[in-house]
Amino acid sequence: MSEAGGDKEAGTATYDVIVLGAGPVGQNVTDRARAGGLSVAVVERELVGGECSYWACVPSKALLRPVIALADVHRVDGARQAVTGRIDSERVFGRRNHYVSDWDDSGQAEAVKSMGADLFRGQGRIDGPRRVTVTSDDGARRTLTARHAVAVATGSLPSLPDLPGIQEARPWTNRRGTDSSNVPARLAIVGGGGVGVEMATLWQGLGSQVTLLARRALLPRMEPVAGELLERGLTEAGVDVRIGRQVTALRRPQPQGPVTLTLDDGSEPEVDEILFATGRRPATDDIGLDTVGLTPGSWLDVDTTCLVREVDGDWLYACGDVNHRALLTHQGKYQARTAGDAIAARAAGRPLDDAPWGDHATTADQHAVPQVFFTDPEAAAVGLTAAQAARAGHRVRTVDVPLNAAQGANLFADGYRGHARLVVDEDRGILLGVTFVGPGVSELLHSATVAVAGEVPLKRLRHAIACFPTVSEIWLFLLAAYQRERG
């Protein structure tokens, strides 16, 4: 099928499914709907591949990997002596450019079309039930009608605070933080969540003097030990970490001049650029939600099949960031696969298995969300923290073990420093959550995700033998510590 747009494409067309957004989430809806035998139109207003491919996950990790690799080398005696120069930022930016295909989306556009879907470029807006209008850059307008479903996968946008001087300061968001090819001498980052700490790791590693400002602890939604170890790591790397500080105003009198921050403690640090990582808002302002009784710019409330609850007729779905269940690409893709299968099943009149852990239920969004921050040290977690589990009414026991209890950790890095925590449901004998903090722990997370999502009993988990000498052997020490604590 073909890519559509422009005057010659103006008119109407009917499909089984219309997908708004051609990022990873929209592509997964498309793939599953096509696997179910449905015709699909995909509408994209920016680059096919979305935020993740060009301004978030892919470029940030492409940029961070050289920084982390260099830090890892410095932790191994005999290897650190071979490193004599500074990081080559131009080569790092070139590596990033390679992985984002120089912001050329033709390859991903071909991938969408290879699924058998039609791609429409332009602004897609819902225009009443099961109808979408697409306005291309040249003003041509086309009306698409869906027989079965419209799926919203438009993602989210940076949320900036309303501060005096913020417009003249021209702050960076995650987009400028990942597509810039210039290293600012001094960079302030506002926000201690995942984006903020990754950007602090990245730009300090590339040579900026970074000041990180956070209202509360770093990574506040994870176990406290994650933020504590990360604060220590960033500080040792040279980042000026200021916890409990807020920006109250900004000044940038000259367009190319420095930015002066006014903080709530009265201090006024001066930097060359400022990056805000202070949250996200749904990219739903201009997609026609008002035509079906919803509020433009709102998050979309969905059921376990990602069907929007407040719209009658069982035709409007919302997957990924827009439903606010888990603002993570991998979770959005998981939701999209479920939604695509549910759309196909409903279209064919097949029964839906939407019970917990069923084929058509996004249950993991409530119980087993994995997340990794590629900082130094890395922070990885799945499921509930101890505090979250207690608030949910579980009777829990926490088990804490330093990661260097595993010989594999010490062989991975001299003087390895890290931490592991289990959150155990004492009544059911299963894991509710797992947290790892330390170099290289991202590769430990899937084993924990399987244990949490699979509700593997601890008495069975102890028979999953970890190879010696790997960092994964930490599981042996965690389970042994749990047995000792129980007595």
UniProtKB/TrEMBL annotation:
Residues 15-330 form the FAD/NAD(P)-binding domain. Keywords: FAD, Flavoprotein, NAD, Oxidoreductase. Its EC number is 1.-.-.-. Its cofactor is FAD. Belongs to the class-I pyridine nucleotide-disulfide oxidoreductase family. Pfam families: Pyr_redox_2 (PF07992), Pyr_redox_dim (PF02852). The keyword Nuclease does not apply. This is NAD(P)/FAD-dependent oxidoreductase. InterPro entries: Class-I_Pyr_Nuc-Dis_Oxidored, FAD/NAD-bd_sf, FAD/NAD-binding_dom, FAD/NAD-linked_Rdtase_dimer_sf, Pyr_nuc-diS_OxRdtase, Pyr_nucl-diS_OxRdtase_dimer. It is an enzyme of class 1 (oxidoreductase). Residues 369-474 form the Pyridine nucleotide-disulphide oxidoreductase dimerisation domain. The keyword Oxidoreductase applies. One of its GO terms (molecular function) is oxidoreductase activity.
